Every structure is written in C-alpha cells, then in structure tokens.
Amino acid sequence: MADPVVLLIRGARAVNPFGKIAARLLLSRAKHRSIQGHPRMALRLSRWAPEYSYPESVFLASDFAPPEIQNKRRVGFERLATLFRQRFAKSIALSEELQAGVSDLAFVNAHRVPFQYQRYVDEHLKIGSVVEATDGPRVRDMDGNWSYDLGGSYGVNLFGADFYKRCIDRGVERARSLGLVLGPYHPIVADNVRRLKLISGLAEVSFHMSGTEAVMQAVRLARYHSGRSHVVRFCGAYHGWWDGVQAGIGNPRPAPDVYTLKEMDAVTLQVLRTREDIACVLINPIQAMNPNGVPPSDSTLISSDRVADFDKPSYIRWLKELREICTARKIVLIFDEVFLGFRLARGGVQEYFGVQADMVTYGKSLGGGLPAGVVCGKSHLMRRFKDSRPMDICFARGTFNSHPYVMATMNEFLRYLDEPEVRASYEQLDAKWDGRALSLNRRLEDLALPVRVANMTSVWTTLYTQPGRYNWMFQYYLRAEGLTLSWIGTGRFIFSHDLMDCDFGDIANRFVVAAQAMQSDGWWWSDAALTDKAIKRRVMKELIQARLGRLPWKASPLLLSRKEESHTTISVTGSHTMPQ
After folding, report:
1. φ and ψ at 261, to 5 degrees?
2. H-helix or E-strand spanning residue 330
3. Which of 34, 85, 174, 300 could be bridged to 408 by S-S, CB 3.0 to 4.6 A?
4. Are 366 and 415 in contact (CB under 8 A)?
5. 137 with 505: CB under 8 angstroms?
6. Do 372 and 413 form a contact (C-beta atoms < 8 A)?
7. Partners of 494 in the beta sheet?
8. What's the pTM?
9. What is the mean pLDDT of residues 96-116?
C-alpha cells in the first residue's frame, strides 16, 4: 500500500497549485540540517568567510590553555620542527621546488590543517611530499628515511606496492608488441570484459581513464535513457570533482540539477517516491562509515566532534529500501565503487552488502597501478544511441580509453582476483581488520590517551574522545614516528591487504608512541569550559570579527581569556609577558 504522504503529495499536484509547495517542503525536509546538507548555502558561506591567521602569540593559546601548557607546546613544536628540518632536508627542499610549479601540491599544503594555523605551520613545520622507493608496506624519501605508508595511494594500494610493480611490469610486457595503437582494441580487452561482467553481474562495460570520468559517463547515460534531469547524491558524499555531482564548496558553479539529501532517512525515501524528475541515485558506500558527513580531513578538524561508526546491518537495510524504490520508480541506482571497489569483497560493494545496482563505476585499484575507470551496467542503460532515432546519441569517448598497457595491467589485477588464496583472503577480512582496530583501541584506552580509531575493513580514521583545538597536530607526531599519511592527515588511513601482523604490530606501537608524545607536549590539555560547542562558537565569533576587521589581536597583542581578563603567555619563540 502506498505511503499516505506520497499519495497526498501526488494528489495535491494534480488538483491544485499548492502541490508544488508541498513537494518543495518535502524536499527541504529531506536535506540534512548541517551546512553539508545545503550545498548552495555552503558555497555562499565559503565565499563570505574571510582569511585570518593566528600570530605566534595566539598559536599556542587558541584554547586559552594556561602558561605552563603553552610552554610544553612550544618546546614540543620546536622539537618537531628541528627534527623535520634535519631528518627530511632533501625531501623538503625538492617539495618546495615542486610546489612553486605544481598547483596541486600548493593546494594540498594549504589545506593540511585548519586555516587559522596554516601560515605558522607552513613557515616552521615543513614536510616533504616526495618518495623515491617502496619496499613492502614502506616508502623511502629523498633523505633515505623509511616509513610505513598509511596513505594507500588514495585507495589504489589494495594488495601492496610490490603487487602493483609486478602488474605494471607484466602488463607492459604483454602489450609491448602492440605498443601505442589507439582505436582498435588489444585482444586482452575481451578477457577484461568477460571478467568484469562476471564480477559485477552486469551485461556491458565501458572503459575510461579515471573514476571521475566513469561517474560522469554513468550519470550521463542515466539521464539519457530516463529522460529525466536530476541526480540525487547524499550529504557529504564525494563522486569526483566535476560540476555535475560536486555541489557546494569546491565547485565555483552551482549545480541546479543535483539534489543533496540525507542518507539513511525516511523522508529521503518519500522524495524518491514522489518526484518525477530524478534520473539516478548515486551511492558512495564509504559514507556508511560516517553517513551525512564530509570526508574527514584535518583541515576541518577544529574540534573533536568527528564521527565514524560503521553499522553494516543498518546500511544493508537502507540499500535494500533504496533498491526497491528505485526499481518501482524507474530510477537508475548507481554504486560508485571507485574508492571501495574490491576492497570489501572480491565482488565489490554489491557482493558485500548483497544489493544489485543498475550501474557500477570502478577505478583506483582496478587499473593494476595505472590510471583507469570502468562503468558496468545493464544493456539498456549502456547503449549510446537509439535505434528509432539515429541522430539521438549519448556521446562519450576518450583518446586513451582502452589504452593497451592499461588494459594489460588491468588484466593482471583481474586474474589475481581469481587466485584461490586471494578468494580465501576475503572470507576473514572483516574479522582481521576489526580485530586489529579493537586491539589498538584497547591499548589507547588503557593508557588514557584521548584518541581512538574507527574502521571499515582496511579503511580507518581517527576519533578524539575529549574536546580540543589541536587534534590536527597528531599527523605530525605520526610522521615523526615513521608513519606516512596522505594530505588529509589523520582523517583516513588506507592499509594494503598484504600487511603482515608483524608490520601492523610495529605500526600500532608507533601510533601509541606518537599519541603519548602528543599528550606529553600538552596538545590534549582539557578544561571543563572547553567543549566542542564552545570551540565552534569561538571560531564563528572570530570569523565575524575578521570580516569586520576587528580581530582582538589586531588591536592588542592577545585576547587570552574566555573572561576577557589579562594573563601571561609564552610565545613560540620565547617567554615574555603580553598584557591584553
């Protein structure tokens, strides 16, 4: 029996003009209350928010810590800065040279920590972004330092660096006789298609050069065949950098044909049941780890309210409800497996959650170490033309799609998935990684360290158990202990599945040592008045003051106390008294 609310809205549309108002109100209710749930508002806010930086006198006291804690922080910060300058000298020098000519690196370095602290960190605590060799789970920088790789090449590194070296070497060798011939297909493509169809359970395949391109094609095909205009994505989800699915911050052009709705919410399901303009629903299953939250990054870690908790049974129920409604409403259900594909199960997210999509996009690991994107879909959705209207086509091509070397390297990856020991490794995957996370959390709890980890198999993030403004510093303590992260800092650790217990044990030990040093240096100082809510309120006040040109440290050296009273502080470069 149809939902009464659904029937009411459809009836209202049919008999009076207020139906549109009712539909609009329902759509508004389906948006998450956070700023991430309102992309246009978020974009406006990002354009309104002014830049301001903490001077060195405020840098250590932005949480109003007492002088003795500020002094601990100063000593710890200077120790780290000296260590990095000495240990990573060549890597830092080359990274600075690259940054002058590579805008991507400049962007990354400008967003490692909350922007208020960035200028001072960038001046005094530089890091290298260059590595020249790998050995198992470790990477070596230009200075000869070996460290464990926790960045996982943004998700590409599923089976380990040595595996991808072999894939590339064998792939190049297998395609060497053809070399660079584009247009005609290398014969190996046929085997790739056969294997992808079996894995995905879908009928047809198209090849691309990146995950972003694969999502672009899937959405375009969904619109083409449905004759509808709008895409539904969920609050906080990432589907590539292109305008069509990146609503809000990061996209200078508003996306008027994208609905950003709450995930795992009954009102969202009502929207899907009632609207006639929805072409497809995009699912990025990594969001099961933090539904309706943006991908965790230390650049936004202004307090300790980061949340991550993977509830597999609840997410399965949600996906099954979506599947039923999309089928009934002829909405194309697209699983974006670019990041998680093959990490959770050999058959990807569809196998792991037991839900079949209409289209699936893959990327990252699938290329065997080379750039690749793939769309798998039902036959009627994958066609680029209509027999009855020969001029009505859905064009999508790329010069390097189906590049022979990429196809051969991809084949190495796909063949590896069929090896018995690889198939067997997936059977205990959850138990293995959940156990590792649990053991580390127990150690952290026993030592009264205010940091924990949460995981979705081999994808981890850090959580913080007490309010604080300096959690972003943890990434530097981890680096000092030989743990290399991606630019998002402690927001996401991506382990390769070949990681041995001995290596994980070493990583866990280093993690604990880094946390102990962070605590010893005073960055996790706490106070009853230092709540997450109070921190956010203070930052908002600073934004308004900066917009008005009235930041307190502009008029006087330092606004020290939450009660606006005078105190003594310790600067980063030495001790001196600073009255308000």
Report:
1. -120, 170
2. none
3. 174
4. no
5. no
6. no
7. 459
8. 0.90
9. 93
The secondary element (H helix, E strand) that includes residue 156 is: none
Confidence of residue 400 (pLDDT cuts 50, 70, 90): confident
CA dihedral angle for residue 451, residue 452, residue 454, residue 458, rounded to 10 degrees: 100
* Structure tokens, 31: 């948006």
**Residue 360: C-alpha distances to residues 65, 380, 390, 393 (Å):** 50, 14, 27, 21
Half-sphere exposure of 77 (CA within 13 A, CB side): 26
Q: What DSSP string runs through 109-148?
A: HTTSS-HHHHHHHHHHS-----EEEEETTEEEETTS-EEE
Q: Which amino acid is at 25?
A: L
When pLDDT is cut at 50, 70 and 90, the band that residue 398 belongs to is confident
DSSP codes of every residue in 355-395: ---SEEEE-GGGGTTS--EEEEE-HHHH-SEETTEEEEE--
d(CA 549, CA 50): 10
Could you give the percent of the chain with pLDDT greater than 90?
79
Q: Counting Cβ atoms within 10 Å, is residue 511 exposed (0-12), middle (13-18) or buried (19+)?
A: buried
From 182-191, 319-328, 460-469, 551-560, the region with the lowest mean pLDDT: 551-560
pLDDT tens per residue, range 123-161: 999 999 999 999 999 999 999 999 999 999 999 999 999
CB atoms closer than 10 angstroms to residue 226: 17
Torsion of CA 166, 172, 173, 175, to 10 degrees: 140
Residue 70 phi/psi, 5-degree rounding, is -60, -40
Helices (H), 263-372: 266-274, 312-329, 348-353
